[in-house]
Amino acid sequence: MSAPDAPPLLKSSAGAQKLWLVFAGLMLALVLAALDQNIVATALPRIVSDLGGLAHMSWVVTAFLVASTMTTPLYGKLSDIFGRKPAFFVSITIFLTGSALCGLSRTMTELIVFRALQGLGAGGLITLSQTVVGDLVSPRERGRYQGLFAGVFAACSVVGPLLGGMITDALSWHWIFYVNLPVGAVAIVLIGVGLEHRSNRVVHRIDYLGALWLSVATCCALLALSWGGTTYPWSSSTIVGLGGGALGAVGLLTLTERRASEPLLPPRLFRSSVFVLSVLVISLAAMGMFAAAVFLPLYFQLVQGASPTAAGLMIAPMMGGVITASIGGGRLVSRTGRYKSLVTVGLTAATLSFAALAWSALTNGGVAISEVILVVLGLGIGVSFPNLTTAIQNAVEQADLGAATATAAFFRSLGGAVGVALSGAILTARLRSLLPGGLRILTVGGPMPLAEHAAVVDAYRHALSTTFFAGAVIAAIACLTVALSPERPLGAMRR
User: Fold this and answer.
1) How many helices (H) does the chain have, and how many strands (E)?
2) 140 falls in which pLDDT band (50, 70, 90)?
3) Is residue 412 within 8 Å of 65, Cβ to Cβ?
4) Taking 70 as the threshold, does the pLDDT of residue 473 lie above it?
5) What are phi and psi of 357, to 5 degrees?
6) For residues 474 and 142, which has the higher predicted lDDT (pLDDT)?
7) Minimum mean pLDDT among 152-156, 190-194, 308-312: which range?
8) CA-based angle 383:279:345, to the nearest 5?
9) CA quadruple 41, 45, 49, 55: dihedral positive or negative?
10) Can you say how many angstroms the Cα of residue 316 is from the centroid of all Cα atoms in its chain?
11) In 3-state terms, what secondary structure has residue 90?
12) What is the rounded CA–CA span in Å between residue 402 and residue 393?
């Protein structure tokens, strides 16, 4: 793809050279955030082998997703007040500090805590990159530049699992975090040199109280899903307390958002049935997709005996399907102005794909069968996400476009975090029931008697099959929700 010419708006201020310095820095920042959402997946079996803690494995991904999700709206507000450049420096510095500490981790607890710190920085990388494009580029030219960013993000979705596997095989899992350091340093230099700091501040009120209750509700719910039935019984005071804490925080969040002058989650958006149902479907679809991205490499490595690099390659067809369907489905919806039928077909395909994965895992299906299923799964998910976002943007007032898009992005990330936590809890619970003598961790490449090895592999096969079946149920609920929801034809957006 050839780079678009620098628009006159930028040539008159910083010049074309500084423009591309800035955009190179923004793309590197985007690469850091996009890769770290999925580069860890193929390294997880090796991480668990070194550090232990299979019961908490999903939190290596969940901690990052939760922290980045919580901070995304705050970075936008802070950059409005203090400027984009200082906010970028803070975001990248926190991210790189977390990356270095992740690489130095010696226990699973340390890794989870440092992944959360990494996520606190990552929350600003994507949103600030997109915001700076809006600052510097005229509206007429903006789509061309955002297209470059979309291409980078899509490429990272494909490359991430493969790169994670290659680095783990060639060096060690520690280097999937260390590799961020030189890339982040270059991004800081490019943004520091090319991006001009604007000292004029826009007065905004930051909804800190809303962010607090949102964080408390999310963390309590995720802890309850992760610990329930595994670390603690579902009826234990700990799980009941976490559930009550989540509900109480949601209630306090609702009251806070109604009174806040600039709420993180504007209540008026939730009066639109199209918005509410579309956000629900996005959350459900994200639950399935993120869980698949995390646990499929585990299945390929521990059950089918693939190396981390091979597992990354085996995930690529799903991500390729997502990219292809996102582009093709978006063009089709643009021509017809209708999205509901296409999204329904996509989620139906995702439901059948998850069910087929569960069957394949249970019956020890071959690699070829899994790859075909993953292509269909990627196509189904790919036609759902972007078109649901389009439906949301079309259902709200023009003045609420930014808030609606940001809210949908938040619930997509939240759905992904819930999906990973819930799938991890299901996997751990099934392994405990299948291996009553104690939870055994299959050490990748490590010695183990053949009979014991076969028993552990069989337990993982059945446990992962249950996890994939749960994904089918979630996708089916999302499909049914779309089928019953109203459709607002594109172009009928309220003004």
Assistant:
1) 18, 0
2) very low
3) no
4) yes
5) -65, -40
6) 474
7) 152-156
8) 30
9) positive
10) 16
11) helix
12) 9
Burial class (CB in 10 A: 0-12, 13-18, 19+), 364: exposed
pLDDT tens-digit series, residues 383-394: 776 677 667 766
Phi, psi angles (nearest 5°) of residue 422: -65, -45
DSSP string across 191-210: HHHHSPPP-PPPP----HHH
Tell me the sheet residues that pair with 232. 228
pLDDT at 94: 92
Asked if residue 103 lies in contact with residue 155, where contact means CB atoms within 8 angstroms, the answer is: no
Contacts of 212 (CB under 8 A, 6+ apart): none
Mean pLDDT of the chain: 74
Q: What is the pLDDT of residue 449?
A: 56
| Percent of residues in the chain assigned helix, strand, coil, to nearest 5 | 80, 0, 20
CA–CA distances in Å: residue 199 to residues 23, 66, 78, 341, 446: 21, 31, 13, 48, 57
Q: Which helix (H) or strand (E) holds 437?
A: none
How many residues does the structure list for the chain? 495
What are 85's two structure tokens? 């450049």
Tokens 């109280």 locate to 209
* In contact, 139 and 98? CB cutoff 8 Å: no
Please give the structure tokens belonging to residue 381: 């998910």
Task: Find which of 167-176, 235-244, 359-368 is predicted with most confidence, using mean pLDDT.
Answer: 235-244
For residue 376, is pLDDT > 80? yes
Residue 408 token pair: 């949908």
Backbone angles phi, psi at 448, to 5 degrees: -160, 135
Q: 114 pLDDT exceeds 50?
A: yes
